[in-house]
Amino acid sequence: MTNEKLMEIFADTAYVRTGGSEEEKRCARYIADKCRELTGREAALESFAVPMADMAAASFTVDGRPVPCKGYLCAGSGSVEAPLLYLPNTDPCSLAACRGKIVLLDGYLGYWIYQDLLENGAVGFVTYDGNANYTDRDIDRRELRSYVSQGRKIPGVNINAKDAIQLVRAGGGTARIALEQDEREGTSQNVVLDLPSQGEGYILFTAHYDSTSLSQGAYDNMTGSAGLLALAERFAGAPHRYGMRFCWCGSEERGLLGSKAYAAAHEEELKNCALNINLDMIGSVMGKFIACVTGEEKLVHYIEYMASELGWGMEARQGVYSSDSTPLADKGVPAVSFARLAPNNTATIHNSYDTAALVLAERMQADVDFIAAFADRMGNAARCPVARQIPDNVKEDLDVYLNRKRKKK
Ligand SMILES: [Zn+2]
Fold first, then answer.
1. Do domains 3-51+187-401 and 59-183 have the same CATH topology?
2. How far is the CA of 323 from the centre of ligand 1 (A)?
3. Tens digit of pLDDT for each residue in 323-332?
4. How far is the centre of ligand 1, averaged over its atoms, from the C-alpha of 104 (Å)?
5. Ligand 1 geometric centre to CA of 53 (Å)
6. Confidence tier at 193 by pLDDT (50, 70, 90)
7. Percent of the chain clearing pLDDT 70 (strictly above)
8. How far is the CA of 49 from the centre of ligand 1 (A)?
9. What does pTM read for this prediction?
10. For a tag site, which of 36, 155, 255, 334 has the least CB within 10 Å?
11. 350 CA to middle of ligand 1, Å?
12. What local confidence, expressed as pLDDT, does residue 231 receive?
């Protein structure tokens, strides 16, 4: 694929495409069209159900003064009024002060902090995003994920970091959250393309193509999606010993919903899956290339040796990468995620600054070349050497990541 063709993909997909939206469907069709154009083969759109909500009205006031906000989707409708409490720490002593309060939190609303809020009697929550040092006052659209709430909903809003600081300076007050939303079931979809194999086994390539609410998702993750298209184009002309299946995952940004749906729908077939190769954020102008192996330690060393042999600068480690490789590894498929991680002051994600300006065509090509070299070796192996087993230490990490166990302090 030429640099021009590659960058055209970013221009064609420079729009917000959140999981379950019409724009996400449009992008799925675009990827399927590209598959046909580049490989001559038909990709399938595999739909799965996702919770959706249309917010009719959301407000947040403190002592009667309105604070710009976006209501949490899927957090129910209704209103609540209570004293505002800023919760910088989440130790049991701090949490005990949450009873009857609307609680302002730093960071994301994770599974365990939400359970803690409920257990300690909080009646509402406020998160914030953006950056106090940016000129914009953007507010991301967040949702109360169904695996976080498990049906136990309290209302919440997301606000801008600048307003959060002002509220804490002012020292609290009486807060009121009111949400009015229509919650329903919608659909998202994975795009699946098969290149034929000579045997039973196959390698599964994944990359998510959805974005968050403010973002064009160029770096995160049209880079990985375009990378998968480039790999499919290359491999379509040269059949490998192993089959090659490509899955562009939907709704990753909503909690890996696409790869979870894929893993559930294809559980039987996954027994023949030798390896998952996942691409999430490559090709950035700045940043280091990494490989995260959710599998045996030997694969870390193999990739390091291979990189050294090819003169490729990189860093490999064993662990869990927060991406679509995780639900697959959880089903016992060894996985490796490739990424180029840019320093925060040169590229940020999940905001309006994630555009094609963060991407360098030559870097994209080089990253894809290295990933292709690795995939070539695995795909043409007499027998894929990666043990089809997840080591116990990695299983522990998966338990923590997937909220089955709490991280040890
Ligand atoms: Zn991503």
1. no
2. 6
3. 999 999 999 9
4. 26
5. 22
6. very high
7. 100
8. 20
9. 0.96
10. 36
11. 9
12. 98
Q: How many residues does the chain have?
A: 409
The pLDDT assigned to 351 comes to 95
Ligand 1 centroid to 362 CA: how many Å?
Answer: 21
Q: According to CATH, what is the number of the domain 3-51+187-401?
A: 3.40.630.10
* C-alpha of residue 407 to centroid of ligand 1, in Å: 23
Region of poorest pLDDT, from 46-60, 108-122, 195-209, 349-363: 195-209
Q: Please state, rounded to an integer, the average pLDDT across all residues of the chain.
A: 97
CATH 3.50.30.30 describes domain 59-183: yes
Enumerate residues with CB within 5 Å of ligand 1 (an ion).
220-221, 280
Q: Provide the 10 A C-beta neighbour count for residue 341.
A: 15
pLDDT tens digits, 265-314? 999 999 999 999 999 999 999 999 999 999 999 999 999 999 999 999 99
pLDDT at 21: 98
Cα 137 from Cα 163, distance rounded (Å): 9
Residue 346 Cα to ligand 1 middle (Å):
17
CA nearest neighbour of 359 among 169, 222, 199, 264: 222
Residue 196: pLDDT band with limits 50, 70, 90: confident
**Do residues 399 and 405 lie in contact, with contact meaning Cβ atoms separated by under 8 Å?**
yes
Task: Provide the pLDDT for residue 172.
Answer: 85
Å from CA of 222 to ligand 1 middle? 9
Is residue 235 within 8 A of residue 195, CB to CB? The reply is yes
For the chain, which residues make up each domain, given as ranges?
A: 3-51+187-401, 59-183
